[in-house]
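To whoever is on call:

I kicked off a structure prediction for a single chain this morning and the downstream step that reads the tokens threw a length-mismatch warning. I double-checked the sequence; it's 424 residues and nothing unusual in it as far as I can see. Pasting both halves so you can look.
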Amino acid sequence: MTEPRIYSVGELSRGIKNLLETSYREIWVEGEISGYKVYPSGHAYFDLKDETSSIASVLFKGFGGALKFEPQSGLLVRARGNVTAYDKTSKYQLMVKELQPAGIGPLQLAFEQLKKKLAGEGLFDQGRKRPIPALPQKIGVVTSPAGAAIRDILSILKRRYANLHIIIAPVKVQGEGSKEEIAQAIKDLNAGFPDIDVLLVGRGGGSIEDLWAFNEEIVARAIAGSKIPVISCVGHETDFTIADFVADLRAPTPSAAAELVVKSKEELAATIAGLERRLLQSLRIYYENLQGKFRRLVSSRPMVNPLVLLERPLQRLDQATEGLYDASSERLRRASEKLNLQTAKLNALSPLFPLRKGYAIVKDAKGKAVKTAATLAPGDRLSLQFSEGKAQAEVVDNGGAAADKPRAQKKGAGKAGPDQETLW
């Protein structure tokens, strides 16, 4: 019986390495880039993946410099290279020599589609974003309780402002169920703690798959519907998620979010000291201006001799009085002339005016004016109105104007008394 060949670990590992390198040389592989990262050496490391599997890949600096586009996570590419293995760990990888873009990968495509949809609804508009309170007293944090993000946030908040009230909503931040937990935690904090000043929602860095929960529509709508202002803090500075676009403020990392949300005591003290200096300087300038005004006022001519304040008013009073007197005299003269003229016109129209020329007004016994002799008969009593005084008379003869009337003569006719006059 032939003894089986026994391989050492090293022999088997080297054999696998040789087999892979011999069997898979200059092959083309199509897949989506995930976790793309360039190290200081210039070499880039990433995974190529499809719906079922992934393979570790490396693009050395010499080959990467010849590319005409910038590789990034989410891109669907075709890679040419060799499969090799590192025999000390028996891990294989694809050594890429050439990359060609083959379109956008499914995750990146989903990202762009949701981004376009929510932007069309106005969820990214700057006008709907709310300011973050300058001095929050109560802060809510939605993140994993086991990740480095929560430790960094708590450490920075404690160092910068220790007497804050912090409420943590522990959630899964990747994998199945994570998007539902994140969205529900945001809603629960709004409902149960409406007095929270600001929410921090995020996690530490990772691949696009690790961060994908923050690219889900349910999370985006929970952030948009939050009545509490939200700061998103997902991944590293170069990572952007849908949550970043919807949130009121984006922080590049969880640590940066903690620094943004509160100012340190030293910063507050420096700000207060600066305001105090500005206030004192303003008060000093204001006081000096008042002093200058007071000195000028005290040394002014009216303060030295207050009577000068009356000189110009008295002069104006004299001028006004003189002008008023002149104007009044002139108006009085014109009014007097006008009155005399109207009086003369009135006198000329007066029925008494002719009496001054020797005429008289004759009235019968009933007080009616006698206009013609024909209305009189001998014996009628008459009243005579002269320019000065009155007299009584009796008609003796009307000149034949009423010959048919009997002549009447009263007792004592022919004798003139002091109150009567005989007319012939």
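Update from on-call: the warning came from a stale cache, not from the record. Cleared it. Sanity check on the structure: The domain at 9-104 is CATH 2.40.50.140 (OB fold (Dihydrolipoamide Acetyltransferase, E2P)).
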